[in-house]
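Appendix B, example 12.
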Amino acid sequence: MMETKVCEHLPSPENLKPANSHVCAKCVAMGSTWVHLRLCQTCGETHCCDSSPNRHATKHYLETKHPVITSAQPGESWAWCYEDQLFMPAL
């Protein structure tokens, strides 16, 4: 029987933070652009994804150890836990 990995860092659905920004403020400050946006579920900050030139979401995790991000893209509902290296579709 295969063991299923479970993330204990993901907040319950009713406690998920909504996107409060539709820009990566760090990219804006640098005069840069982004591809997609990710929302930190610990502090609520919005950062650019790893497909973006500056990869601010991952940098944010490395600096803060805030483990879970969710997509801030309209119509997307998923999460990624950096600590557990676990993708969670359809929140």
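The longest helix spans residues 56-64. The CA atoms of residues 77 and 91 lie 6 Å apart.
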